[in-house]
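Feature request, filed as a ticket because there's no other form

It would be nice if the structure record came with a short human-readable summary line next to the tokens. Right now we just get the raw output. Example of a typical job, pasted below so the devs can see what we mean:
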Amino acid sequence: MEEKLEILDAQSRHVGKECSRCGKELAVDDEAVECPRCHRVHHADCWKDNGGCARRGCPQVAKAVVGERSAGDGPPPPISPQRLLIAVGVVIALIIVSIIWPKPSDPAAGRIKISVLLEASLEEQNELNQIVKRFNEADEEIYIELHTTTRSMIESQLFVRMAGGDAPDIFALPYDRFESIQQELGAMYPLGSADDRAYGVQHPSQLRAISIFVHTKHPDAAITVLRYLLTEMTRRDLAEFKEQAHILDPELMLDIDAFLSLPY
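Raw output as currently delivered:
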């Protein structure tokens, strides 16, 4: 199946959607490509740079809309034995230093460590740092390890950490990725009641669902941290924006108040 290049106008159904590769919204006059397999939309440059669809698991490669590839200047020159020995020596020295260098003290100090990965602007990051600091200074049993990133990087960081066996206990994803990842991987810990199961909670200020990783070692502590964050983070009224943009809440997501009212 070959893809087609489209220049978006004001009537295009793709205007306002997020590019599946960079996460930025598509605007009028942007060049866009819709994947003919999974129908995810991309900036044309993102499609070219990625060599096809950026959706995880989609096999579609660029066929009709492709970028120019550099011919290159041939193979690199061989590395001299002297440089190779120097490089090996540097690696060995670094290994030795890493072994004998004194390790910094663990800030968790024996407490249960709950890792949190959230998308945040600089202003939001400052707010989150203060919220987490207050918790860590007051709680004697749980320690929050906060990681913040950008919209375009959060999903790739999440998958890298999952693959490395270091998945965050709590993370947030856009509505569509939250639903598809849960359906494809079952990566979210079940929330809600037995009769009304859910796998995420509305982010207080973004069109995101915050979830707990299904294989977290400390589900009770993760729930405690999630409840704290949702209580302390600044809330934004998203209802009007959703209505104007015709965005529906995911079926498997709870609103904040419903989650906070659960008898955990």
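Something like this underneath would help us a lot:
The chain has two domains: 1-69, 112-260.
Residues 81-100 form the longest helix (20 residues).
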